[in-house]
Each structure stands twice: as structure tokens, then as C-alpha cells.
């Protein structure tokens, strides 16, 4: 019986009771280890090996890759199922060549150690410029210089690839047109390269000879380009001026070329006629230049009146003479007779030109002589007439009887009015043609008129109107 305090309730104490009967308090009968598994090893797994995993091998729990614990046999365990990070799904450290491309670290991983297959041994994607020659590349120099021997496209540099190779090419326009600014040999087109550049050159003969058909500027040689074209041009002063030393068609300026050479010529009429307004020395014609111009009758090289030629180059008198030679009637016509007169005048050094006082069907003194306004004078100074009108009025001032040398004319082989001083005329005293002219003074088989050179009346021109043309007689000659 329990004693109870009379001032407090009694405290009840409960004690656990092991009902298995092994006295360890774990509830598993008969093992006495207190772990409740009944195997008596105290690890609670009931297999009796003491490792707690229930398999009886004594090695503990098996490793699990991906559980975040690096177990024996694992190099790593990052607790995830990513195969492309630093720890693979096999719990191995990721490395180049394992066939797994590590994100952010490798560009590729083909599981081998070969270069040139697209993925290098460093697990980098192979590309042009990485210094490794890959399939499809002609070269790879590992740089990004496009102008060396290997382009940025990993192709060998060649002319025509549109990349100018340093030290090798002058240009590269990517085409094979040889006539543009860059030749098909990748040289800058220049004059002298033997290629005619379109739109820039007219010719290109591949030399620097400036005197041939193609100049050093690659233009066709033309007059006025400043280059002397050998064998074609006499000169080329680079202009088309006709008043300098080289005229427009590239010939040297000369008197008579029709161009007035400035400061050298006074005139140039382009001919070799010396008696027009411009002399053959290209000096403007003027009285006193010793050249008888078309508007002059005489020019003694001075302007001194009284010497027979006035200061306006007109005769102050006209010389006349009887030839010192005698001839039959076949004189050779007007031209032949005039030639005889001029030959005799030249022999006597008489000035001017002369015509014979004869007539033919082609002309007479009245139609072909200068009808003088000044006196007619013989070589001895005696005047036979004041002018043309006085000469042809039927009488002379004095007898016409002096030769070109101021001698006495030779007697003819016929006489008239008791005188054998006859002269061939075939002309009336007024200068018109007579009836008989020895067949225009070309034959000895006819008759012709003769005059008497010792008289002053009209017989001076016609004394015998029908003398045989075999007669020998002199001629009257008149200065024109």
C-alpha cells in the first residue's frame, strides 16, 4: 500500500518496459545490440556486415555520378546532367579530344588529334587564317594580310584576283582586259607598254622614240604636236601658225610658200614670179628694186631720173635700132624675129625687151607694141619720133639708121629708090600689116615688104612691097 502525503497529490512515474526479453531495450528479441535490426552488429541494416547498406559486402553505399559527391572512381561530380560543361555526364573532367564540345571553351571536338579535318587538335574550328592548311585551302599563312602571297580567302595570290599583291603587282582589277588601266599582267597601263589603252591612247609602239608614227605621249604623230616626225616632217614647232619658221603643214618656211614669215618676209605670194607685187626674195615690189614689176616699164635699181628710167619706173625714152645682122624672109614668125632683136640688144647691153617691126597674121606693131608716150631714140641719142602717134604719122624726125652698137646697118641684097639699105618690115608706116609678109615670115618662097632705113618719109617702112624672101636684110627693133 502506498503512503500518501496529506498535503500534495502523489507524482506518478512511468518506466519503459522491454518486452522482448533481451534486456537491450531495442525491441528486437534476443540480439542485445540495441539497434533494433535483430542482427546483433549494431549498424541497423540487418545484414550483419556492419556497413549499413544491407548487402553484406561491407563496402558501404555505391557511388552515384551526378549526385554532387565525388565518389571513388569519379574525377568530378557537378551534380547535373550537362555533358558540355567542365564535368561530363560520366563524371570525367572535360578535355579536348574527348568528343564532347565544351561550351564556351571549345569550338569543336571531333575526338581525334588530327589537324585539317575541320576541327584542330586544340579543339578550335579550323578556318582560313588559322595557319593550318585545310581541305579546300590553297594556302594559310595565319594572318589577315590580303596583299601577300596568300590572300584572306586562303587562295594563292594571282593576277586577276582583284587583290594587289605587294611588291609583285602594280594593280589588279580582277579582269583579263588588256586595254584598260590595269593590264592582264597586273601592271599599270603606261604609254610605251605596247598595249593601246582604250580612251587614253591612240597608239603604243612600245618605244620612247618621239620621232616615229607614235609619239612618246602615245598619240598618232601629227603636224603641230611638237615632235619631229622623221622622214615626214621637216619641222614641228608645236603649233599650226603659218607665220613662224615652221609653217602649218610642218615644212620649213621659205620664200614662195605663200605664208608671210613674221619679221623675215615683207610678203609671200606663193609663186616664183619675180615681176609681180612680191619679189622672189619676198620683198614688196617697189620702184628701184632692180626688178621690173608688172606695173613698171623699167627698173635700174635706183630712182634717179635722167638715166632712161624715171623715178616711177617708166621709160623716159624707148631705144630703137637696126640689127647689125641680116636675114632672109624665113625669120621664124613674130617670135623668131623678136628673138633676133633681143639677142642683139643683149649683146650690146641695151636695157629692156624688144620687138621686131614686122607683121604676120598673128599681129602687127599696131596690135602688139606698147604705144609709147615718150620719145623713140636711137643708140646715138637721136630721136626718130616723139611718141607712138608721131612714129606712125608717116614721117620720122630723122632717118632710122643706127645699129645696136651705134653702127651703120649692113646693105641688103636688094635696092629701092637707088638705095640698098633695105630692112624687112611687111608693115605699113602706120604700124598695120602690109600685103606681103613672106608667108608670115616663115618662108623664103614668097615675097615681103621692105623699108628703106636712110629716109624719113613713109618709105622707111614700105619701099618695095614685094621683095623676094630670099633677100637678106636687117630688122627694125623697138624697145617695149
Short structural summary:
InterPro entries: C-type_lectin-like/link_sf, CTDL_fold, Myxo_disulph_rpt. With 480 residues, this protein is mostly loops. The chain has a domain at 317-479: Mannose-Binding Protein A, subunit A (Mannose-Binding Protein A, Chain A, Roll).
SSE topology:
Elements: E1 317-322, H1 333-347, E2 354-356, H2 365-368, E3 375-378, E4 383-385, H3 388-391, E5 422-424, H4 438-441, E6 447-452, E7 464-468, E8 476-479
Helix content: under 10%
CATH class bucket of the domain at 317-479: Alpha Beta
| Gap between N and C termini | 209 Å
| CATH level 4 superfamily of the domain at 317-479 | Mannose-Binding Protein A, subunit A
Strand count, sense and barrel status of the largest sheet are: 5 strands, mixed
- The total strand number stands at 8
Q: List segments where confidence is low: pLDDT < 50 over at least 5 consecutive residues.
A: 1-21
What's the helix count? 4
Name the CATH architecture of the domain at 317-479: Roll
Would you tell me the overall average pLDDT? 88
Which topology of the domain at 317-479 does CATH recognise?
A: Mannose-Binding Protein A, Chain A
Major sheet strand order: 2-8-1-3-4
Order of helices and strands: EHEHEEHEHEEE
Question: Which structural class should the secondary elements be placed in?
Answer: little secondary structure
Sheet-strand content, in percent, reads 5-15%
User: What is the 3D shape?
Assistant: rod-shaped
Amino acid at each position: 500500500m502506498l503512503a500518501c502525503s496529506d498535503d500534495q497529490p502523489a507524482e506518478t512515474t512511468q518506466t519503459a518496459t522491454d518486452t522482448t526479453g533481451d534486456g537491450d531495450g531495442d525491441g528486437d528479441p534476443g540480439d542485445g545490440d540495441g539497434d533494433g535490426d535483430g542482427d546483433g552488429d549494431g549498424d541497423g541494416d540487418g545484414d550483419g556486415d556492419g556497413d549499413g547498406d544491407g548487402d553484406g559486402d561491407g563496402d558501404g553505399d555505391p557511388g552515384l555520378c551526378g549526385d554532387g559527391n565525388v565518389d571513388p572512381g569519379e574525377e568530378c561530380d557537378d551534380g547535373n546532367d550537362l555533358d558540355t560543361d567542365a564535368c561530363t555526364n560520366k563524371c570525367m573532367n572535360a578535355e579536348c579530344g574527348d568528343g564532347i564540345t565544351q561550351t564556351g571553351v571549345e569550338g569543336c571536338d571531333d575526338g581525334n588529334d588530327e589537324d585539317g579535318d575541320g576541327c584542330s587538335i586544340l579543339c578550335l574550328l579550323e578556318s582560313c587564317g588559322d595557319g593550318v592548311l585545310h581541305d579546300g585551302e590553297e594556302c594559310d599563312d595565319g594572318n589577315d594580310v590580303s596583299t601577300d602571297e596568300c590572300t584572306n580567302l586562303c587562295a594563292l595570290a594571282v593576277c586577276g584576283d582583284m587583290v594587289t599583291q605587294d611588291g609583285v603587282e602594280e594593280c589588279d582589277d580582277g579582269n583579263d582586259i588588256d586595254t584598260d588601266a590595269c593590264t592582264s599582267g597586273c601592271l599599270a597601263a603606261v604609254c610605251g607598254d605596247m598595249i593601246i589603252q582604250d580612251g587614253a591612247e591612240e597608239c603604243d609602239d612600245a618605244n620612247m622614240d618621239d620621232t616615229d608614227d607614235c609619239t612618246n605621249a602615245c598619240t598618232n604623230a601629227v603636224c603641230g604636236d611638237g615632235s619631229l616626225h622623221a622622214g615626214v616632217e621637216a619641222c614641228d614647232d608645236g603649233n599650226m601658225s603659218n607665220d613662224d619658221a615652221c609653217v602649218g603643214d610642218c615644212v620649213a618656211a621659205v620664200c614662195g610658200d605663200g605664208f608671210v614669215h613674221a619679221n623675215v618676209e615683207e610678203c609671200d605670194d606663193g609663186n616664183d614670179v619675180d615681176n609681180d607685187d612680191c619679189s622672189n626674195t619676198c620683198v614688196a615690189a617697189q620702184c628701184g628694186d632692180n626688178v621690173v614689176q608688172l606695173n613698171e616699164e623699167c627698173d635700174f635699181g635706183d630712182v634717179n631720173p635722167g638715166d632712161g628710167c624715171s623715178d616711177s619706173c617708166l621709160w623716159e625714152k624707148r631705144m630703137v635700132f637696126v640689127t647689125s645682122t641680116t636675114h632672109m624672109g624665113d625669120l621664124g614668125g613674130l617670135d623668131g624675129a623678136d628673138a633676133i632683136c633681143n639677142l642683139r640688144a643683149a649683146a650690146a647691153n641695151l636695157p629692156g625687151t624688144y620687138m621686131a617691126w614686122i607683121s604676120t597674121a598673128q599681129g602687127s606693131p599696131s596690135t602688139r607694141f606698147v604705144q609709147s608716150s615718150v620719145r623713140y631714140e636711137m643708140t646715138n641719142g637721136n630721136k626718130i619720133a616723139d611718141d607712138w602717134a608721131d612714129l606712125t604719122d608717116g614721117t620720122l624726125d630723122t632717118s632710122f639708121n643706127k645699129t645696136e652698137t651705134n653702127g651703120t646697118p649692113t646693105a641688103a641684097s636688094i635696092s629701092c629708090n637707088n638705095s640698098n639699105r633695105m630692112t624687112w618690115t611687111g608693115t605699113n608706116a602706120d604700124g598695120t600689116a602690109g600685103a606681103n609678109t613672106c608667108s608670115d615670115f616663115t618662108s623664103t618662097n614668097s615675097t615681103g615688104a621692105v623699108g628703106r632705113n636712110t629716109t624719113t618719109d613713109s618709105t622707111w617702112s614700105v619701099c618695095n612691097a614685094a621683095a623676094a624672101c630670099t633677100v637678106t636684110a636687117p630688122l627694125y627693133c623697138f624697145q617695149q
